[in-house]
Amino acid sequence: KMLRTALALRPQLPRRLRGSHAEALVTELEELKRRAKRRSERADSLSEQMREERVMHALRIANCEGPDPAVLREIETLKLGRRKHWHDQKRASQLKARVARRHAFEAQEVGKTGGLALEDLDKGNRNGRPEVALLGHSNCGKSALLNALIGAKARRGPAEVDSRAGWTMRLHFYWARPRGLLDEAHAGSQQGLVLVDTPGYGHAVAGAKELRHWRDLIEAYVSSSPSLRLALLLVDCSRGLCAADGRVLRLLRKRRVPTFAVLTKCDLLPPAELARSHAIVSAQVDEALRNGAAPSRADAAPAVPLLMLSSHFYSGIDGLWERLGETLHRQEAERLARLQQEAEEGEAAAAAEEGEVAAAPVQRRRGEPGRLMVRIRRERERGESERARER
Q1: Order of strands, edge to edge, in the sheet holding 228-236?
Q2: DSSP code for 180
Q3: HSE on the CB side for 221, CA within 13 Å?
Q4: Which DSSP symbol is given to 363?
Q5: Which of 172, 337, 384, 391 could pair covalently with 197 via S-S, beta carbons 3.0-4.6 A apart?
Q6: CB neighbours of 161 closer than 8 A, spacing ≥ 6?
Q7: Strands 171-176 and 306-308
Q8: What is the pTM of this model?
Q9: How many other CB atoms are there within 10 angstroms of residue 300's CB atom?
Q10: Are 200 and 232 in contact (CB under 8 A)?
């Protein structure tokens, strides 16, 4: 199998391997596959397919053209990439303290569920707060990112982190009120948001029945949750986009869920290789979406942004919060605009039914708002009363 893969990808291999004999080529690839295992990884949490995908991604990086200067500048600005003393825990503690001063807040687990029914999915977020889901294959860093978003250490935050693939077996809902989103100018943003930690797909230390249940659980949640506002698809920068990632991307596009692709573990690759990996994964994301879209809608669909971060060093967390805040505030403004438009249309229809002049604008005396306008006011009053109780 390794020989067939190597021969199929021979044009993409580094120049020093293109002219190799088949036996030497396989020997070289086997050695690369052996070194694909990281020191801290468990043997049962790393499958042969994951090793091969890491090797092939490393070969694509080695054969990729020069990195994009703009991406390299972004990497330098965010201080990403493996550098000298990259394993220094003191540096990680300093960065954590810096992030904590800006974003530190408590996140409370408000529910968890493993059921596929709609009433089971609603148990985790009974108040209907906007949800941001973290999706990705096993051991891609979902729980660690959730802890980093609130300024907590990877293994001391509310989300449990373990090196065993398949540790998260249910949907976990965490209510958070980040400072950057508590803006009085945006109605409804004071209620905070719910971060959803999902089970990983792909290889895991579990049976086939559990793997199928987790896959069905993710699909049911993405298809049925009425509060899902945004999805973060996490991709390991040293592995690239796998086939399961492409299927989840197409499912999110089909359900019209805004999506950000996020490169995780960006402290494992040098800056130049990280920039090449960014270019490769960006092309893979575009190709995965084109394969699943209709020919007439392939060009009209919005592109998926590709962000980079390191949960270990808290690099890129500020930029991710900025993108989350912009997206959620824009969605809230669009929702209120739709309610306003529905209110005006409802009042115009009611006026026409009562025999008023349909062509003239709706004349309404002061103090007599329409039903949907009353609904908007009640929503705002309810939000103010909730904030008063919290204070």
Answers
A1: 107-113, 171-176, 193-197, 131-136, 228-236, 259-264, 306-308
A2: G
A3: 34
A4: P
A5: 172
A6: 143, 144, 147, 154, 155, 167
A7: unpaired
A8: 0.79
A9: 8
A10: no
